[in-house]
Fold these 4 entries.
Entry 1:
Amino acid sequence: MGYVFDFNDAVAYEQWFAKPQNLAVLHMQCRLMIEMLEAHPGKSILDIGCGTGECLKFCHEAGLCATGVEPSPYMLDIAEKRLGCSADLHRAKAEDLPFDDNSFHYA
């Protein structure tokens, strides 16, 4: 089991993404991931360790059915505020996912 972000980590993470150049890098990575997966709108994606939901937001905007898992309640709080009902969020660890095998097109 790894480190789970606390409140201060979540705040620092969010502040890091407040800088346009950092957010631009993440969006470039998300675009590359979607291109490499050849992901199509309407397909489902699971973001394991979704953090504050920035990548899930991008996936949703690309037309994917977005689901995220994150062990940190502080990171999930930010993700829920950011995403509203546009993604399905769960508090869980990667080692114990609350889904059946093959529940998603991409992970």
Entry 2:
Amino acid sequence: MALLQYSLPKIQSLQPAVQPLAVRLLELAAERGIPAKIVQGERSLAEQQALYESGSGVTNAPGGLSYHNYGLAFDVVPDAYVSLPDWNPNGPHWATLGSIGESLGLSWGGRWGKPDKPHFELNAVPVRELKAYWDKFKAIMPVTISPSSAGTAMILLIG
């Protein structure tokens, strides 16, 4: 699929459990006439800390306290918004992307008190547990998901 060309390296940076969710979000968005790109996947703790300290408003989470640090979060931007200031935060495509992501079992940053509309995460594991695992083992806690009978995802921790 051509729309994945740009996004593929970012998708591959995510944990295996999240990769098909990211791909499916892009596929469903394209089916609804909203081609989009994943512009951010996993971030190192140092990258996260630098963004946090920059004061740019890109993140409110210091290094180690973002789902991006554990390959469980990604940012998506509709192609039509990529070149617009602040990615057109009031554009109509955000609500559609948000509902698609939520239908896949992802949490959407557009629902936060300070909305982060491009952000999607699999946050069934508290980020502080992910950080504690990192601090202890210097490795990312692997997370897998499997469908439940209700069609939603169950989170299984490995580690």
Entry 3:
Amino acid sequence: MKNSKSQEKTIVVRKTGIDEYGLVKISNGDAHELEEKGIGDARGGVIILRPVELVYLSMNGYRVVIDGREVNTDELIREVRNPNALTVYLDMRKRGYFIKPVVNGPVDFLVWDKGKGPLNSGPRYMIKIVTEGLGIQVMELLNVLKYSEGMGTQLVLALVSSEGVITYYKAFTFKPVKGG
């Protein structure tokens, strides 16, 4: 449900690279409100937003202006290169989790426990998207698992079916107890 025109929030961004937008301003608000929602990353004094985050904001009552032109939710969705990433992002947000996209990493998202966020804690989970029919190679899975455990987080595989249904699986290494 959108706010009245006088209370409507507009987020103004400029395209700064592939899959990233630099925040210029927010009308009727400030960048701190995005930070509190776990949206965007500060880099060089600029808040960087990803396409999935802009879609989420657009779906939650924000008007989005990119490079001086207002864009609607459908146009923003077309900016998302991996539709499964958008499906997982929106599902986790709907479930009440803080979730941040990972760029150029072995996982797709960092996720915080409910009630915790990037301002007061580290991520609890890392999500790797696995597309039905494509799967994941065993060595890639082992490398991602080793990375996640090395960072002190739980790896979660998000299996996305061809119908867009998501099933989450926790992945971990089993360490038998010595002795007996």
Entry 4:
Amino acid sequence: MLQSKDLEQHLLSGLLKYPDKYFEIAPFIEKADFFSERGSFVNQTIFIYLRDALENKEPVDSVIVAQRLKNNKISFLDNLDIGEYLQSLERMQISPDSIYQTA
């Protein structure tokens, strides 16, 4: 279990940037690994949408994931702008090799 918001963000950032790495870490990570802070399931929800898209061989990036969440009327506490949050994840500095280490 990750239980670190920074590690969760690092992993999600890596999956957005290097989606092909998902299948290397899939055996080690699941939705229950993402911690819920004050009832906010932001990172867990993003992971679920990324996982489902990648397993269905669909393209992923911050815009696509944000649109899918909005289309499904998913919202989060504190009126989080999911598009901006996902773009901030995509801008994080991460190498392909560190995704495996994080998972």
